[in-house]
Design goal:
MFS_Sugar_Transporters, Major facilitator superfamily (MFS) profile domain-containing protein, Growth Hormone, Chain: A, single chain, MFS_trans_sf, 154 residues, mainly alpha
């Protein structure tokens, strides 16, 4: 009869605080998906389109200009995320993983806050998209690094 390896479960301790920290840190990659998937759909909302002059009947320039405006709102987050991911490498070495994670969360949250209150101001919305992208991109780098460091050795 074949038996698998015997596990020593005595070394495993359940620490609720440790589990909560791991869960919260692991949620660090959610902003990237939320910004790309969830926020991109808001361009189709009638109230959003009216606030940022994205309604085709009100648009006074050519149709490609309107398409570019919608594409910029959607994609400027990715631009910020690319630079945020690169900058996170430097931050991780200088500040450490946990402080980099905290700073990235603050940058992302402040960018989202600015987006909420950029009602009708197109330039401010684009800045906020880039700013929140910096934080979201940095979180995609910092989160796996931090989780790999706090994990137990195999």
């Amino acid at each position: 009869m074949l038996r698998g390896p015997k596990w020593d479960w005595s070394q495993w301790t359940t620490n609720p605080y440790y589990a909560m920290v791991i869960f919260i840190i692991a949620c660090g990659s959610i902003p990237k998906g939320y910004d790309e998937g969830g926020y991109s759909a808001s361009v189709k909302l009638p109230s959003f389109a009216a606030d940022f002059n994205l309604v085709e009947s009100n648009w006074t320039h050519d149709k490609s200009g309107l398409a570019n405006r919608k594409a910029n709102i959607t994609s400027f987050n990715v631009l910020g995320a690319a630079f945020g991911a690169l900058f996170a490498l430097y931050l991780n070495d200088r500040l450490g993983r946990l402080h980099s994670w905290r700073l990235s969360c603050v940058v992302w949250a402040s960018g989202m806050f600015i987006q909420v209150f950029s009602s009708g101001i197109y330039g401010l919305l684009l800045f906020a998209r880039i700013w929140s992208g910096l934080g979201a991109g940095a979180l995609t780098v910092v989160t796996p690094l931090y989780l790999s460091e706090i994990g137990t050795v195999a």
